[in-house]
Amino acid sequence: xxxxxxxxxxxxxxxxxxxxxxxxxxxxxxxxxxxxxxxxxxxxxxxxxxxxxxxxxxxxxxxxxx
Length: 66
Hints:
The chain is mainly beta. Helix content is about 10%, strand content about 55%. The chain has one helix at about 15-20; strands at about 25-35, 40-55, 60-65. Strands 1-2-3 form a three-stranded antiparallel beta sheet, with no helix packed on it. The relative contact order is 0.21.
């Protein structure tokens, strides 16, 4: 089984405003794998990135953290 998720999937209007402020913002996503019957998770995947909007160059600088 495979799942593809983008950090863009978690960015809403409120987070967009924070990203455009120019202050460093850390985004973290966690994905848990459960048996179909439920119970405790059998696996976890976590990804993080730090986003800084450069106000002068008007570009986002992104650092992926694995």
